[in-house]
Amino acid sequence: MLHLNKKIFIVLFLFISGFVLATEPVWDANKVILKSEKITSGVYAYYPTNAKELEKKGLAVATSGGFIIGNKGIFLIETMINKRLHKQVQQLIKEASNKRVLYAVNTSFHGDHSYGNMYLNKNTIIIQHQNAKNYIAKHFENDKKFMINTFGKNRGIEEIVPTLPDILIQENSSMSIDLGNRIVEIIDFGFAQTGGDLFIWLPDSKVLWTGNPIITFKPSVPWLLDGHLVETLSSLKKVYAFLPKDAKIIPGHGSIMQKEDLKWHINYLQTIKDEVSKAIKEGLSLEETVKKVSMEEFKGYALFGWVHPKLNIPAAYKDLKKK
Ligand SMILES: [Zn+2]
């Protein structure tokens, strides 16, 4: 199902979204420059240098991540789409510490978060969700083709080979990693975009990495690429309830956010749930529902004209019709 959705995604993405030429990726992995931002002692976010400018305008931003320096070594979040960006991350780490990268985690199987695993030092322990591992084992070649179609040829994707994880996180579970002087928690809050979604929580600094379930600030909205509106909404509500008021959040594609910034995303999904449920009760067809539930108040994201009517409303309709 995942696979089919992705195929539809390529076609729609390239031909329906009027502002992307078929040959132009939304961001260019050969051009993105990453920078790091120190959050507190030994805790860094990294994101593209143009993130703050683009996210405000609702434009697509390349992948974000971070790293945590502990007494024993470094914990890395995300390994990026290609060698070029992975090396940039390694360089940002080097500028902050001479310690080894002990662990690297991928928040999902998505290539822009995990393809760089092959460029890690052989001793680095790779952490993944069981469902991410399963997806890669079954679909890697097709996933790579999809990524080349979406992000362009000659972006270093052709040479990617899958790298097996060393530690797996199971559904609805979590794991603590001890870096000597600090503990890092890796949490599955439930289905959040792919069904293999990991959130990284650093209790001593109140910092959370979310991966793609939170793309970035308003006006970006979640992408229900693999459906499951109801579960996604409930997982994001769990994340919100889990966080202390002053938590800092590094999203999948943007700069550092605050807890209250999550409300936009939760409200968006809640409004979809309420409005689409109403439409189904009234007996509306999918087409009529898409027309009726246009939710203009959530407009502003450059990809809204595609993500909302072509992806999210159909996903919600299908999910709610079942229940
Ligand atoms: Zn991503």
Question: What oligomeric state do these chains adopt?
Answer: single chain
Query: How many domains, in number, for the residues?
Result: 1
Radius of gyration: 19 Å
Average pLDDT figure? 94
Helix percent reads 25-40%
SSE run:
HEEHEEHEHEHEEEEEHEEHHH
Low-confidence stretches: 10-22
What's the total helix number? 9
Sheet with most strands = 7 strands, mixed
- The fraction of residues in strands falls at 15-25%
**Which structural class fits the helix and strand makeup?**
alpha/beta
Can I get a quick summary?
The longest helix is centred in the middle third of the chain and has 22 residues, at 130-151. The protein has nine helices and 13 strands. The chain starts with a helix and ends with a helix.
List the helices and strands and how they pair.
Elements: H1 2-15, E1 34-40, E2 43-48, H2 51-56, E3 65-69, E4 74-77, H3 83-96, E5 101-105, H4 111-114, E6 125-129, H5 130-151, E7 167-169, E8 174-178, E9 183-187, E10 199-202, E11 207-211, H6 229-242, E12 248-251, E13 257-258, H7 262-281, H8 286-292, H9 304-322
Parallel strand pairs: 4-5, 5-6, 6-7, 11-12
Antiparallel strand pairs: 1-2, 2-3, 3-4, 8-9, 9-10, 10-11, 12-13
Helix pairs in contact: 1-5, 6-7, 7-9, 8-9
The chain binds zinc ion.
